[in-house]
Design the sequence.
């Protein structure tokens, strides 16, 4: 219950702009400036209780308390390691980032890429931090995590062994921004050890908030060069690398002076006229600032003599600066992988680039309600979360010359690294895209059921893979499409972030029913009550002609115990109190004849719905059937409410027996009526003080 309240509170914060670039969330609720001032006033150096200098911070297995790698580790501050520590000295450079014993080269490549663009570095590494001016042993960094920017505070106690830093260090040994950024990244993920192994794309995204595509160049799409050109016009970051087959090849230099297993940046894509033909060129930068390609179109090569003076003047730069040109045809042969990190409009600072339109949504897969698995599992697939994208305007300058709407879909599962400590693997995830039928166009308060989705073929299906994020590019005709994210197998819990980047405006929103209820109140008089029913009521109620909570529990359990077609754990006193509270019109805390008659009508209706949904005649109902069953009873609920229902009323096998089904419907009706009686003018909101809230919640 409290975790649900915390999630609601987080969403309210997001609605107020907390978590944006301009207003980052304080990670662990630690405010950098407040903590810093407290330390300065008390004249002590900051010690971070949320990420302490101990063995748990290092790791749990290879870097665990009993590992040889951590034996003899001593935590020291930079002021204890050298006489004149610097946060950043003469600007941040690639040589500030040297790998230690941790296998996080993927992260270090992303950190090194920050040094190539000052605007990104300044955002991740806030200015004004040093070991001199008002030094208090506290530093902070801003990192994008699953849809929001977080401000992460760390102390500067760093793990050392034999007097040297255990992990990231600078070549000179006196610069510490890289080591402290690595510590902040370890903090948001739970420990240093969970950073071992990964993909540079992950770091790109977490330092920019962008969405990253990856292309294997051996299978490069036909118009990749045009995609690269357009990405550069839209301010995207691009990196490329050459795969290695063994650790011995790491940073090995080829005959043409390309470095294997090394992260390069792609900084340009141009076409030039050479001997009457158009030649496609890409500009690449080695972050070392040296060691350049020596093949065709390299600095000083003969090819530059074959183009006109204007083009040469615009592109050619003879210098040993690590940046060089090469033909695109050589690029896809020599390099193995291209990564494009597409940026959000709020990230871009230049008016010369046109950014993507972006949309993002948080969601959950929960066993028994919304964890339906992929299309292989027809019985549960349509219970997955659903989102609609409305494509209206075709691409302004299509790279393939064909009309259509280009968009990217990224599905990211949360907290995969944190789960490593629990020995849990990340799930295999992906998504399916359907065309929305004409009769549902323009609506977001609906849900596409099996009668719609299972009768048509998807227009696109992503790769399903066990990675943090699946991101793919699509081009579809204008129209409305439903995106259904899922795990590959059903019945897997998880939280996810769905992001859509589109070249033109493409309104995207969850496909969810509006929460409503159509409650038909039976209007009957005493003369309409069957005489036999009156007789039975007198037998139950006794001389006072009122049925108490205890009498109600006794009679309901007597009735259901005689039925072999339904399973029940018997009606509880709590359920019977709910029933009386709902139907008690005169506040006597008992049920009179007419109130009891209304209950009997409700129970007959609920029993009919229950038996229809019990398709295997087990006497129970699957929790995945609960949405349709609740709808038949007059309620329309969304996925969040459905999850709450399943959590509250399903058993360990995610089955719902009859007494729980009745209890759920009675509770829904009571809560709905309470809300509507307190709501002001159909606003969809109510306001309560503490006393009112407690009284209603307890009641």
Sequence:
């Amino acid at each position: 219950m409290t975790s649900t309240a915390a999630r609601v509170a987080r969403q309210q914060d997001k609605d107020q702009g907390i978590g944006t670039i301009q207003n980052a969330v304080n990670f662990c609720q630690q405010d950098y400036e407040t903590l810093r001032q407290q330390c300065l006033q008390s004249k002590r150096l900051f010690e971070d209780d949320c990420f302490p200098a101990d063995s748990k911070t290092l790791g749990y297995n290879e870097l665990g308390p009993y590992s040889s790698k951590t034996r003899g580790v001593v935590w020291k501050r930079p002021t204890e390691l050298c006489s004149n520590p610097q946060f950043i000295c003469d600007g941040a450079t690639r040589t500030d980032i040297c790998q230690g014993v941790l296998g996080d080269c993927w992260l270090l490549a992303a950190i090194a890429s920050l040094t190539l663009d000052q605007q990104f570095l300044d955002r991740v590494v806030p200015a004004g931090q040093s070991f001199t001016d008002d030094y208090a042993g506290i530093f902070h960094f801003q990192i994008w995590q699953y849809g929001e920017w977080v401000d992460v505070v760390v102390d500067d106690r760093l793990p050392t062994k034999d007097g040297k830093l255990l992990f990231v260090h600078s070549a000179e040994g006196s610069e510490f921004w890289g080591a402290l950024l690595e510590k902040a990244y370890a903090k948001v993920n739970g420990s240093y050890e969970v950073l071992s192994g990964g993909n540079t794309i992950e770091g790109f995204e977490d330092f920019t908030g962008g969405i990253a595509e990856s292309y294997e160049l051996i299978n490069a799409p036909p118009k990749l060069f045009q995609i690269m050109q357009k990405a550069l016009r839209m301010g995207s970051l691009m990196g490329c690398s050459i795969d290695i087959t063994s650790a011995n090849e790491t940073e090995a230099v080829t005959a043409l002076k390309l470095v294997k297993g090394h992260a390069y940046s792609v900084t340009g894509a141009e076409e030039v006229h050479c001997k009457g033909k158009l030649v496609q060129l890409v500009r690449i930068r080695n972050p070392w600032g040296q060691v350049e390609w020596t093949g065709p179109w390299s600095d000083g090569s003969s090819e530059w003599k074959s183009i006109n003076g204007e083009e040469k003047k615009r592109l050619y730069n003879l210098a040993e600066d690590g940046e060089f040109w090469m033909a695109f045809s050589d690029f896809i042969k020599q390099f193995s992988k291209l990564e494009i990190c597409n940026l959000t409009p709020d990230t871009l600072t230049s008016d010369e680039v046109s950014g993507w339109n972006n949309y993002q949504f948080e969601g959950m897969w929960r066993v028994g309600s919304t964890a339906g698995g992929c299309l292989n599992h027809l019985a549960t697939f349509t219970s997955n979360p659903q989102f609609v994208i409305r494509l209206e305007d075709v691409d302004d300058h299509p790279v393939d010359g064909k009309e259509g709407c280009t968009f990217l879909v990224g599905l990211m599962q949360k907290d995969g690294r944190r789960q490593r400590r629990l020995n849990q693997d990340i799930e295999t995830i992906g998504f399916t895209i359907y065309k929305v039928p004409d009769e549902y166009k323009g609506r977001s308060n609906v849900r596409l059921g099996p009668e719609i989705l299972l009768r048509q073929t998807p227009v696109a299906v992503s790769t399903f893979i066990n990675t943090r994020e699946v991101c793919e590019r699509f081009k579809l005709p204008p129209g409305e499409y439903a995106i259904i994210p899922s795990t590959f197998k059903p019945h897997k819990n998880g939280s996810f972030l769905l992001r859509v980047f589109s070249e033109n405006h493409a309104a995207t929103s969850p496909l969810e029913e509006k929460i409503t209820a159509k409650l038909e109140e039976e209007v009957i008089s005493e003369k309409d009550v069957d005489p036999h029913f009156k007789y039975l009521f007198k037998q139950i109620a006794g001389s006072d002609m009122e049925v108490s909570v205890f009498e109600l529990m006794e009679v309901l359990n007597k009735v259901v115990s005689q039925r072999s077609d339904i399973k029940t754990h018997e009606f509880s006193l709590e359920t019977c109190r709910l029933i009386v509270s709902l139907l008690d019109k005169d506040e006597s805390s008992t049920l009179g004849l007419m109130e009891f008659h209304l209950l009997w009508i409700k129970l007959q209706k609920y029993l009919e719905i229950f038996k229809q949904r019990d398709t295997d005649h087990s006497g129970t109902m699957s929790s995945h059937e609960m949405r349709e069953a609740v709808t038949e009873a007059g309620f329309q609920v969304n996925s969040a409410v459905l999850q709450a229902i399943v959590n509250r009323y399903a058993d360990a096998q995610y089955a719902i027996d009859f007494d729980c089904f009745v209890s759920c419907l009675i509770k829904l009706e009571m809560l709905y009526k309470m809300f509507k009686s307190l709501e002001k003018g159909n606003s969809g909101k109510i306001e309560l003080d503490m006393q009112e809230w407690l009284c209603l919640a307890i009641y």
